[in-house]
Amino acid sequence: MVRRAGGTGSLLVEEAPDPTPSSDEVCVEVRACGVNFADLVVRMGLYRSAKQYVGWPIVPGFEVSGTVQAVGANVARYRPGDRVIGVTRFGGYASRICLPEPQLRPLPAALGFAQGAAFPVAFLTAWYALHELSRLRPGRVVLVHSAAGGVGGALVVLAKRAGCRVIGVVGSAHKVQPVLELGADVVIDKSREALWPAVERAAPDGCHVVLDANGAETLKQSYAHLRPTGRVVVYGFHSLLRRGSDRLNVFRALAGLLRVPRFNPYEMVDKNRGVLAFNLSYLFDELPLFGEAMDDLFGALERGELRLPPVTELPFDNVGEAHRLLHSGGTVGKIALVL
Ligand SMILES: NC(=O)c1ccc[n+]([C@@H]2O[C@H](COP(=O)([O-])OP(=O)(O)OC[C@H]3O[C@@H](n4cnc5c(N)ncnc54)[C@H](OP(=O)(O)O)[C@@H]3O)[C@@H](O)[C@H]2O)c1
User: Fold this and answer.
1) What angle do CA 155, 159, 165 make, to 5 degrees?
2) How far away, in angstroms, is 194 Cα from ligand 1 center?
3) Ligand 1 atom at minimum distance from 333 CA
4) Which of 31, 155, 228, 243 has the greatest number of C-beta atoms within 10 Å?
5) Mean pLDDT of 224-246
6) In the predicted model, is pLDDT for residue 281 greater than 90?
């Protein structure tokens, strides 16, 4: 639980009464929860939908896995003891959580709890960016920034599944091989070579889609490297935070916000390029679309069709360490807290 915005020291483990499910809910005994970069932003008090839907105090967490402990009167699909994966708009860092039935899916037999908990947020985010916003077709050139990360890895996997040519960008050498193993055709390590000349060599005619969660650091050039019909999908601004620090540097964040490029619709029409942006936490209100994404992803997961990014498991009480690892910018794949 986080009672007020701060560094990793503001993450508190507290006791609370067990929740009981309403008639349409399933109560899950949590065995693992996924940790996302957005949780750091929630903890720092900068996540707008957290303020909108919860306020302080808040239990962060968007994804869990575990066993069903109890079900409401209208729930037919699950029974106590079933292994499930759930997505939630906050509250996932808890030992028990009640979720509406549509936010759950069975945990495939081949997956452990940590792998299951690490799956939905990254893949739902990537699915929405690629299938709803990007209209992928085979052969399209897709550039993925931070390709070794949770969402980045899922973007690589889903873009390859759609038959695209994928260029991954990573910030350090140890991330190159894992991204190649996820299926990327080219990986650019921007710590070793200049990013944009390397992109121009890999995609001489420009990119159809660029997935960018960096913010001001790359957004302008991401747009400049689109080909006609291309689009940049913006889904985060992680360069507003300082790598390795769990504290908000207000001046850095403000300076970063001022550097976010403005896009001119007249020029966008003229160049035939688009800029799209989204936040998954509002997708919970779009039930048919949410269901379509869940069905596609969980069907593919169950059939073993998706390569999954690696998952680092940490004991639940090491939640501060999990956040510090994500702040470092050096992680590969996902982190899951295991109860
Ligand atoms: N819009 C949405 O609905 C939505 C949903 C989920 C996630 N997101 C966003 O997607 C991004 C990725 O999330 P994730 O959970 O999958 O994290 P992640 O990619 O596993 O970790 C973040 C990565 O960002 C890069 N990075 C750049 N600046 C950084 C900084 N100041 N501090 C730490 N890392 C930095 C690092 O990779 P490199 O150095 O290799 O680039 C790092 O590995 C985040 O910005 C998150 O907020 C958005």
Assistant:
1) 120
2) 20
3) 20
4) 155
5) 95
6) no
Buried b / exposed e along 303-314 (16+ C-beta atoms within 10 A): eeebebbebebb
Q: Identify which of 130, 238, 284, 331 to mutate to test ligand 1's pocket (most ligand atoms within 8 A of the CB).
A: 238
Question: Strand runs (DSSP E) across 279-332, as ranges?
Answer: 311-315
pLDDT higher than 90, residue 182: yes
Alpha carbon 326 to chain centroid, angstroms: 12
Q: At residue 239, does pLDDT exceed 90?
A: no
Rounded mean pLDDT of 111-128? 98
Name the token pair of 9.
């020291």
Average pLDDT over residues 237-251: 91
Rounded CA gap, 172 and 210, in Å?
20
Domains delineated in the chain: 8-119+308-338 (3.90.180.10), 122-281 (3.40.50.720)
Nearest CA to ligand 1 atom 19: 149
273 vs 266: CA distance, rounded Å: 11
